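Pinned message: reference record for Undecaprenol kinase
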Amino acid sequence: MVSKDRRFRNRTFLSSFKVAISGILLVSKQEKNFQFHLVCAAIAIIFGCIFSISWIEWFFVCSAIFGVLTFELLNSSIERVVDLVTEDYHDLAKAAKDMASGAVFLFAVYAVIIGMIVFLPKIWSLLLYHEIQLISYTIFENTGVFG
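Predicted structure (C-alpha cells):
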C-alpha cells in the first residue's frame, strides 16, 4: 500500500541521502552500542593502515565493519518500532528485539573472527620480531660481543 501522505516520502533522490545520513547521525548520537562499534571500526582501520594490509584483507575488514554497523542500525530501528507499537510488555515484542540483537551479535562475532584472522598474525610477528631483537641485544650486551 502506497502512502498518500507526502510528509514521509522523499521528494528527490538527494533528499533520500539526507534522510539516510540523518538516520546514521541520530543512531550515532543516541546508541551506545553503535558508538562502541564506531570506535572498534576506527581501531580496525588504524591497524589496517599501520600493518599495510592487502586489498583482499581490506575487503573483509570493511565488509565486517559495514555489516556490524548496518545490523546495529536495523536493530535500533526495530527496537524503536516495537517501542512505538506497544508500551506494555509482550512476548512477541521481546522476541523481536532479542532476535534483532542476536543478528548484531552474530555479525559482531564474524567481525571479531575476521579481525583475528587479519591482524593477529601481523601483531604476533611484530611482537616476535621485537622479542628477538631484545634477546639478541641482551645476549650481545651481557657477553661483551661487539662491544
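Pinned by admin. Summary line: The mean pLDDT is 87.
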